[in-house]
What we know:
Layout: E1 2-7, H1 11-20, E2 22-25, E3 28-31, H2 35-48, E4 53-59, E5 66-71, E6 76-81, E7 84-89, H3 93-98
Antiparallel strand pairs: 1-3, 1-4, 2-3, 4-5, 6-7
Amino acid sequence: xxxxxxxxxxxxxxxxxxxxxxxxxxxxxxxxxxxxxxxxxxxxxxxxxxxxxxxxxxxxxxxxxxxxxxxxxxxxxxxxxxxxxxxxxxxxxxxxxxx
Length: 99
């Protein structure tokens, strides 16, 4: 299974993704495709992203059962620790000002 979540992306990219995926919520796309198609679709997201951001999740044979790829600026940053995918949060600008 593939899941792509987008934020603040152009309507043309949302329309392109809606051709290939089921949009279950605004900006959340779900489908099931091969690795080759996944890579082609992710390249289209990368080319059409503009100022937005996106995350791609897909099934794979690892401890977590999935892998993650991101594009664009976001507070949530995936990282790997002992073979597990985790998500770190960057501080908000107000957090850094208060310290």
